[in-house]
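Feature request, filed as a ticket because there's no other form

It would be nice if the structure record came with a short human-readable summary line next to the tokens. Right now we just get the raw output. Example of a typical job, pasted below so the devs can see what we mean:
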Amino acid sequence: MTKLLNHVADEKMLENLTKWVKAFMEAVESEWARQWMAKDALGQHLSGPFESAGRFCKAVAFLFQIPVAGHPAMEDVAYFMDYTGPVVWRKSIKGILKNPEPDGPNHSEIKHKSRELLKRLYQDAVRTAATEGPAKQVLQTLQAALKSGASELRPNCCQPLGEVLNQMGELEKKLRKGGSQELQQAAIAFTKDLTEKVLEETAPSILGQDVDVLLQSLKVFSAAKKEFPTLRTQLTAWATAHNTAMASQEVELELKQFVAEAQKQEALTKVMFDAHKIKDLLGKISKPLQGTLREEMVKAFPYLLEQVLQKVVGGEPTSTALLASLAVMTKMATWTEHPHEALASLQVKGLKSHMLFMSLVADLEGLGRDTQSRLRKDSKFKMLREVSNHESQCKKIFEEIGQWEAANAESMTSLGDMTPDLIAPEDKIVLIDIVKRIQNRAPCERDTVYTDCVQQQSAEYSNLLRTANHSMQKVSRSFYAGGASCWKITLGENSDLTAVLARASSTLLQIPMETMKHEIQ
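Raw output as currently delivered:
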């Protein structure tokens, strides 16, 4: 055994050692062997040597990661590496594992390489001693997931493979060299199996994200399988041809999941909706809509509208996610030929306009700590004008919603009297009053930021105008009625308009403008 161990760099010697270790462990771990060593006198006498030989086999199996009976562990290697007693054989194994091949007449290159190999294997085992156990559990979980998911094509069928690709790099840091080999082989087989099945399909039954995972895997393992680059080219072409169908299917699946979850929740703000993902997928789709996508969009629209409204009324700041939800709803309203398309479009516009208005108010608030400091920063009123314009736009859209509601008051009343479960999906938006709920939302400190700025600036301008008017009166008082140079003094009761305008013009020319300018300043 020591000779074989001292020549493991030789491929044939390692093969023989592996066979011997496997055979011995299979025999010694059998139930018959256990009973023999426990009850037979000779077995009891030989149990010590058998245990020592077994520890040797398990140490070799652990270092070379050979699958054998008996659960090899680092403790089996330590049985030799940490030994300080008198048993020559254990000390010999320790020397082979720990020390370089000594110079002398028996020195050989193969022995030197074998000692170096054993040293690297031991160092690798020590490096991963604390992490390998948990990592192997993750490894086994991933392998089981791959095994159970490789049978059929369906949406998200490549999720286990995606998990493998995501965790492979981290696992390899925690495992000994070659520890992930079995998982890699399983991933390669999974990738090949599903890719070949996909290429035979004329109507895709998987999602775009599944194809992305397969393409990534074909690239990652291209060095291991010579046909993978060709398969990757073929799958890319297939995905391009079926891009719209896969995107439609994925949007439909996402909307179904969203509606199913939304129907369970009263607070829709807690329901997950990946608006960015749906928006990107809709970018791959064009009218007319395929399959039952239109129906799912109509079902989802009122829940998504309610979700965004709850977030806005709850004071959630304007974000790219909220704006993406509005972009999705815009397409839902216009692409589905919605029976209430006019109202749906106005509701989306109203929410967007209000959100942008509140976002601008927040920007205005950020200019300073109080009204005075904000106005000093916005000295040319650029921000105030923007806020004012959006406020006007918002009011106009809200008025248009009110006009729609007035024109459809009868049908709204009928729907309001119905049991909610009996209301058709396309009619549910009629009962969502975004205007009233926005106007009746709980007040917050920010609500007065804009109005305080307007009132402050209006007051300052009023004071300025009063001061200017007083200055003008002071300079031009002699031209008033009863004054020494009253402008009407040369006009008669029957003077015509031409005479009046001529007299007024000449009077204005007599006012000392430089004096007036100085007084106003």
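Something like this underneath would help us a lot:
The two ends are 108 Å apart (CA to CA).
Residues 447-476 form the longest helix (30 residues).
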